[in-house]
Amino acid sequence: MADSDNESQGGEQGETRIRTRAIAMDAAARVKKIEDTAPGPRISNLEAELFEMRDQLLESIANQKRLSDDLALVKSILAASGNRSLAKLKVREPEPYDGQRDDKILENYFWDVEEYLSNMTGLNDEAQ
Prior knowledge:
The chain is 80% helix and 0% strand. It is mainly alpha-helical.
């Protein structure tokens, strides 16, 4: 009889455990459903995106300020330079070649001609 009492108690305890486990699983499912439908995680995601957008906006404003400062500096330099005409700039012309056949004199003459031509080309490019 004691064995049958233990078996009946064991059976009841087993059923109780099964019911308790089922109730716990049901409760967990309900909590999960509530968490999924709750606005909390979505609001957190939106807040994170908002902070990221704010940081990007502040960075863009700083870049725009830096570009404005650079533009103001360029404008002030141009205003200070005035309207100098490029035609007024003098480029040293090469010394005339006197016909000597010395290597050093020829080398210096060719170098002078190259410098003259490169300076004239640079002035023509700036004038256009």
